[in-house]
User: Fold these one by one.
Assistant:
Number 1:
Amino acid sequence: MATAEQTQRRMGCLGIWLAVMILTNLYAIFEYATGGLGIYYRVPDAPLWAYYLFLIATGVAAVGAVGVWLGQRWGLYTFVIAYVVSQLAAILQGTTIMALHLILGLFVLYALLRGRWQAFT
């Protein structure tokens, strides 16, 4: 577990970004599971399994973001892997804007975690 000092030090931009990521991933799960955004922006001939893959990867990314919030390395690995899988699923669905958004999210994560790897357990 992260110490109180590590948690307090992490609550700057990284804390805000992680809170936004957790909330947006939960919102995306709701939207895709209820047929909201996922149905409207999906290419008609895209494989349906890519849609479900994106839904599952979004849920895993939310869990990974919580792990990063708690200062766990597994959370970081889980978040990055889920984002890469989400990016592949977005490309298969034909939503290149979503794929670019996912790349931007990984760059922001790298910028915020640069030099803080030792704080993770």
Number 2:
Amino acid sequence: MRVKIAFFILGLLTGLTLMNVVQGKKFEEVYWKTEELKVQLYETVQQMEKIKEQHESIRPMVVEEIKLEIQMNDHSFVEPALRRTIYDLVKDLLGQEVHALPYPLLFNLLEGRLIEEGNKKYRLEVEAVILGEILAYFLQVKKIDDEAAG
């Protein structure tokens, strides 16, 4: 019985060794092909990042967001409807090239503008305009009485 078990184990080891010899070369080829593909992937990713950087530098800067910093003259709360009305005046600037927008136009777009919201009237004063991918307006808003406006 021991002899049969010994021959079985010997046959198993011989079979494994032969399989390793036969298939070992194939495993090694697959391993090196995988490593080669990893290197190609790394090189391709590096090239793609470089092209992306070049594309970003070539692409003109455009206005992507408009921020309104509104302060009421009497330090009261800014009504959402007033904010929306002011935003509607400048929303067309979104997507415009930053370098193509004339600064005086941006300033004068809201400077001294009279806004009617409901039965209230407001006068806008532009304190500052910051032009970039984010266009920021810093506004002072004065509530106007009907007698003073007329």
Number 3:
Amino acid sequence: MKQNNYLLIKNKETDELVYIDYTKNNGYGFTPKNHVRYEGIKVNKLVLVKPTFVEKVLKKKIKKKLDLYLQYMIKLLEEDDESESASHLGSALNDISRYKSIIINNYRAYLDDKYLELLMQKFALLEHELKVKQFEISKREYQRQLEESKKHEEVEEKSRRSR
């Protein structure tokens, strides 16, 4: 079954459907979330062709995801439980690097270089803060283990003396 692509235009002069070949047009395609239900209309794929509109949509999408990462990072950095937050910091670091590579590979064609450079600086700052926190946690853990080993050695030394 061949799929047809159509462009719906509401025009005062004519009410007709125009066929568009999307293989010729370079646009940003995505599947909408379909939260709003309309009778008889189901949208499977949406292709944005206008470059300024594509850029606005992508900036909004990236900003929303970046805000989510910032909120998650603030939550992680404020936590005091080192054992769980260390593993969460590693997964957050992986998520940030993965999202950064998605932006570079998929959205670079649609965004300006200045905006991409600003995003990369933001991601570098996020990664740096997570690495600093991860280092601090590992340093505290190392110091704790060192203190425990010293206490254990002192206990063994006392037991040797008492014999």
Number 4:
Amino acid sequence: MVQYIIIAALLTGSIGLMLLVIGSIFTAVVALGNKQHIFGWSVFLCFPLSLVYCAMNWDKSSYSGKMVYTGAALLALTAIILKFGGII
């Protein structure tokens, strides 16, 4: 049973991390393209700031925001799976 929990956590964690990183890069590019240089460069330095930028500018960054929020949700689901599975 533990193998299935680890496989589920690995799949959700890797997909969630990929969506968060790629969505954050898209968010940084959108921010730099909209002349918001502070947010653009700070998102490159700290990926969780893309959650804030997407929430503030949903009309401009809805595509990257969908990736960022889906990735964050999958990472939270991974933590829940690992916690209730007794792995962490």
